[in-house]
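Annex B. Sample input.
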Amino acid sequence: MGIVYDPELYRATEKHFAPYPMPACARSPFQTWHTDAVFDNGYYATVMFAFTGPLRTVMLQIVDNAGEIVVESMQFFEEQDCTYSTDEYDIDVGGNFFRANFPKLAIHVADPEKGAGADLLVELLVMPTISELPDGVGIGRMNTPHMPVSIAWYFMPWNRITGTLTVNGNEVPVSGHGWSDHQFGTDDFFTKACYYYYWADFPLGEHTLALFEAQGGAAQGYRNIKWLWDFKGEKIYSYDRNADYYVYASDFDKGSTVPNKLVYVFEGDRIRGKVTCIFKTLIQLQPIDAPPLKAILNRAAYDCHAEMLIDGKEIDKTFVRILEATYTLDPEQGAVSESPSGLPTPVATPEPVEDEPEIDYDDSAPARLSIKSKLKVVLEDPQGNAVLEKYLPGISNDPNTKLGYGMTLKMLFRMPQTGVSKATLAQMDKELRSIR
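Annex B, continued. Sample output.
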C-alpha cells in the first residue's frame, strides 16, 4: 500500500468543485455533479446536474422504502438556462441549483410537472479528495486523431445528508448519508476512455474505504486502473494507485446487466478481507450511446457485509450502499465484448471527419411545430409524429425515447450519437413548419 504522508496534498477545495472551464479543443465536453443518498427511512435518491456539452439536464431518481422507483425525473434545458461561477460552487440550471458554503452544500431540484423535487443539505464528514495528482486527471490523457482525451473527477466520499424529498406533491423528511462527486472530460467517457468501471465506498467505522476500477479503452492501450483510498477519521490515510483488491460481479438475472452479487476482496498488507454485497433495489439503469459501442450504467442499492482486517484490527460491519457497475456492451450480442485474452475487443479509432456546414433555418414566421419544439410535443401531434417516423422509423415505440421528451428536436438531434445530420434536421424543420 502507498502511504500518504501529507494528506493536504490530496485535499480538494471549493475551487475543485466549481464548474470547470472546458478547453476550446474539447470535442464533446461533459461536466456533471452527482449526489447519491441512502436515508434512514428506507428511501434512496440520486441527483445529477449536467450543463456543458450537447446535453444540459437535471436528473432526480427517488426510490421509496418498498423498493419502488417513485420519481424518475429528467429535465432538459437550453444553454441560456444555465448560469454558473467558475470561482465557487454555484450552479443554476433552470432554477435548480447546487450551492456551497463549504463544508456544506445546498441542493434544490423541482420538477412541477411530476410533482417531484429535493431540498437537501450535504455536510462533509470526510475530506473531499482529488482523484489523482497533480491535477485530478482520472482516466488519463490519451492521444486520438482529434485531441488528447482527459477524464477527471473530485469526490466527497462520506457525507451527512438531510432535508426533504417531494414525491407526488408530498414532502418526505429524510436524514441519512451518501457521497458526491464532480466529473468532467473533453470527449466521450466510453470507448475512448474506458470499457467498464466499478465505483464503491464503504463506511467501516474508524475507516472509510473508497475504490475505483476501470479498464481503459483502445486509445490508451487498455490501461487498467485499480485505485484504493483509505480515510482514517476525516483525513486520507493511504492511497494506492495499483491496489491489491479484486471485484467479482455474479448472479445476473437473464437479460439483466445488474449483478445480484458483488464481492470485493482485499489482499493488501494493511487492508485484508472482503465485502459481500447482495442486490437490494435498482436505483438507475441508464443506457449510454457511445458509437460504435453501447454502455449501460447500473446504479443500485446493496446490503453489504464487511469482514475486514485493517492494521491488525478486525472489522465486522453491515450497511447499505449505492454501488456502480458500468459495462460497455456489444450492440449485436448485448453482452460485454471480450477478446480471448480477456480484454475488450479492440475497436478501430475513427478517422477524423470534417464538421458539417451549418444550415440556415427559416425563422421568418412563427410555426406550430418546428425543431424548436420539444420531442414530446411533436410525438403527440399525429402529423408531427409522422415526420419523425419518416426519418427515424420506430422512434414512437422506442422505450428510450421518453428520456428525451423534455428536449427540443434541435438540442436532441444535434447530439452526434443520434446519427441525424444537420441537413436532415433542416429538412425535418421545413416539413414540421409546413404543418398547419
